[in-house]
Amino acid sequence: MSLSGRFLLPVLLVVSFSVHGFSKTLSLSFHNGTRGIPAVECQLQLPDGTVLVGMDDGLLFYNGVQFRSIGEAFGLSESSPINNIVLTNDNHLVVLKRNAAYVSYYDGNINDLKFHRIDVDGISSLYLLFPWDHGFLTMLSNVPALISWGKDPVAAAKVDVVPLLTEKAGRISTFAAVQGDIWVATQQHRLCRRRTADTLDCLPPPPAEMNEAWSRIAIGRNGRVYARSPHFFAESDAPAQSVFYEKIPFGEDRLADNAAYLVLVPTADGRVLTQWDHGIMARRQGRWVRYYQPNPMLSDDIVSSILPARDGSLWLGFLSSGEAQVLGEDFMENWSTQDGLSNPTVWTFYRQPSGPLWIGTDNSLDFLENQSERIVRQSAGYTRYILQDPSGNLWSGGSDRFVRLRKKAGRGAESQIPLADIYTAEPSPDGSIWLVSWSSILTYDPHENKTKIVENFDNELNLVPKRDPTQDTLWFFKKDMLVCLHPDGKEDRIGRIALSSDAIILDMFMNDERSLWAVSEDALYHVVHDRTGIEKTVMLPVSYFDTRHLQAVWVDRRHWVWLGSSQGLRVYDGHRWVSVTDRDGLSSNDISQRGIYEDADGTMWIATSRGLSHIVDMTKVFDRAPGRPSIRRVSSDGQTVSPHMPSYRNTGMDIDLGTSDLRNGPTNVFLYKFDGVDAQWRLTTSDRVHYAYFPPGRHVFHVKARSLATGQTSPETSVEIVMPPPWWQSGVAILTYCGIGGLAGYAFYMLRTRGLLRRQKLLSDLVAKQTEILRKQTEDLHYQATHDTLTGLLNRRSLQERVAEMRRCKVPGQELFVALFDVDFFKRINDVHGHHVGDEVLMELGRRFRDGTVPDDCAGRYGGEEFILLYTAMPPEGLNYAARIREALTDPLFALSCGERRVTLSAGVTWLAADEEWSEAIRRADAALYEAKAQGRDRIVRVDAPAMRS
């Protein structure tokens, strides 16, 4: 072996790690055996964002929504382990199995893959696979070798195998290759770069204590080289010719038995990710952080693959547990009992100025060190509240303890105050402390070690009180009454809120001197007051937040409202509510009562029943917009089809959807719509949309992604799909139908013309006759409805309908006159001569009315022996015209069946004033008629309209 002295430099070895003993817990979403992913061997992300997962029994791809199998339909045999996957520089996808490789050209559509087997003998490491030129590198007989197949692996009779190192270079244990660089690890534990097939440029060897073969080498984007064995780590800045060796912290011996599965992954943000015995760990700027699996029962499973996706999400493969997505990567971090937390149920926080974060749990008081981020147990005991008095003393306690702590963490409790049943405490500016028990509010003087009862309660206290930040007063609720309590015991009753009788206020936050927020299990309240009364209360029920119980509330410096519930967080920025749940990385959706706290740097701490979460990137709270979805495939009856189909298909249609937004996948859904098919947008959580029937024509399919957490919507993706009509609806078919129909119709016409013409003539005559009969019947019915049967004059209803028309048509200066006529002594005629003679009189009067009036007049029978005449005339002529009509009606004598008789009429005349009701004019005419009767009958009397009289 030829060794160059190019990298001669000092070597730094670190064997003790006092700053590495801290950890955090991963928040994972598993795709395990229940979803068909029992064990993962490898992972790869393709350029379109698709993730390939190699398992011990096949290959899957993940399109951002669901995992789907790549099996025999793609030319890949199933039920055998997929050891590695790589995409070559010329877009060939290589899947490595035992002693064989499968190759398919990748055109950007995963559904178009078609694998072909190429036999490769002598593979000595199934887990080393790198793209190189027009092929790939793997380990053949402990030597890196290039496997290539020319332009087409299908047409090639056999593959070309070219070893990249000769025997002169020696045997190696592992290697890595990227962008023309090949780094190898020799069996003497040296890290070397390949110069030629015979020559290696090696870094100085590690210390003698590191007598362990390197299992993995990784090359970062900045040219840095990393190496890993079960217990040791190396980092080299190759351009600067420096190297650093160290022993890996947290090391046990489990990985030594599974060294083949060791991975070493540099990330875009400068970290290096690898495994440790119970999860993964990350190294950044010389510092290690270990991450536990969230379920201790799974902590013995080995991480077999680590994939940092291009969108920033992180994916882990496990040998037994399947595939998992790390939730909340770069958004939040979590701690649990595995990380030093004494109890998973966390209740409260307090950040000591320039000091640690204090954590109250179900059975302890812990603190988080600022520098190392280690959680350390301070003391035992249920801790529900933590505070600091003006003297700098820390106080904590629960229902059975009240403890004063020293000013610095780690020295234990200074003293325990013999107070029981204290539920919470608040500091006072004068150095005293407000204490709240289940039955009273007290003040405690630390200097004199004395308590004083400020107020007792009889089961009225509804809330852990909050101290007004602007004044030394306590605010709380007595049932539904908001109360302000002064240190001297004075109580100001501010007002009531709409609180149900059995509701209990669980948390309250005073964000300024005039407003506060409060929560009960079933509602959120925003109360605006002027310190003497409530001005406004806004109540939002628990159903508004799509959760079961509300638990906590906080208003941060950005004026965002944080609401804790039994199903995660809800956050309001003044415009919209968004959710943050375990699908976004929270330790648990079960937020503790009063379990929200804002740190000094504006980040938020969340207490849950399964640990604590720290939201570190506040920009992601409201900005988690989903990525633009993609349309991966259009298929019919299982076969991929072109969006512009050459022929009609009646087997339905499937449209496969996908997205490269892997980070937000658990909280995204698709909205889709087909123009001409769907009347409105439809929602699906699936990656496939099915249409049982697709109509012919041009239709555009639209799809966009929506975040269930924030309500944000992605840009829209669309594709035009053209479905030709079926052959029986084609233009040629329609022309043929028309021609055949025309010929058939003409022949039928010629055969039936004569008979049809005869029948048509008979039918036309019959229709004309029936039409004339119907017309005559209609006219008769109309006449009967508008005329009096005996006299042939208009009836009362028809007369009333003519009034409006005659008013509208009269000449300016004229008036519409109403003359009411009555036959004198008509009863005597009936009594003496009989009713038939009376009818003869009425019929004769009807004839004389028709003969004696002009066409513009309207004469009618008003009822009995009364007649009415409507006419228009100038007021001076109106009475004269009525008198002439009366004379024409009485002269000459009436020729009756009983002989000639003289019949006289009495009449009353008036006219309708402007806008006067018809009934008023009739009433005046009737009065004039009775006046004529009273004056001796056989005369006419006129009564002027009111306007004329005035």
Q: Would you write up a description of this structure?
A:
The protein contains eight helices and 74 strands. It is mainly beta and 950 residues long. Helix 4 (826-833) packs across helix 5 and helix 5 (835-852) crosses helix 6. Helices cover 14% and strands 42% of the residues. Among the domains are: 2-331, 7 Propeller (Methylamine Dehydrogenase, Chain H); 631-729, Sandwich (Immunoglobulin-like), CATH 2.60.40.10; 787-949, Reverse transcriptase/Diguanylate cyclase domain (Alpha-Beta Plaits, 2-Layer Sandwich), CATH 3.30.70.270. The strands form 18 sheets. It has a five-stranded mixed beta sheet, with no helix packed on it. A five-stranded mixed beta sheet has the order 2-24-23-22-21, with no helix packed on it. Strands 3-28-27-26-25 form a five-stranded mixed beta sheet, with no helix packed on it. The model is unreliable at 1-21 (pLDDT under 50). The termini are far apart. This is diguanylate cyclase. It is an enzyme of class 2 (transferase). GO terms for molecular function: diguanylate cyclase activity. Residues 814-945 form the GGDEF domain. The chain crosses the membrane at residues 727-751.
Give the termini separation.
Answer: 138 Å
CATH topology of the domain at 2-331: Methylamine Dehydrogenase, Chain H
Taking pLDDT < 50 over at least 5 consecutive residues as the criterion, the unreliable ranges are 1-21
Number of helices: 8
Assigned CATH superfamily of the domain at 2-331: YVTN repeat-like/Quinoprotein amine dehydrogenase
Rounded average pLDDT: 84
Count all strands and give the number: 74
Radius of gyration, taken over Cα atoms and rounded to an integer in Å: 50 Å
| CATH domain class name of the domain at 2-331 | Mainly Beta
Side-by-side strand order of the widest sheet: 1-20-19-18-17
Helix fraction?
10-25%
Strand content: 35-45%
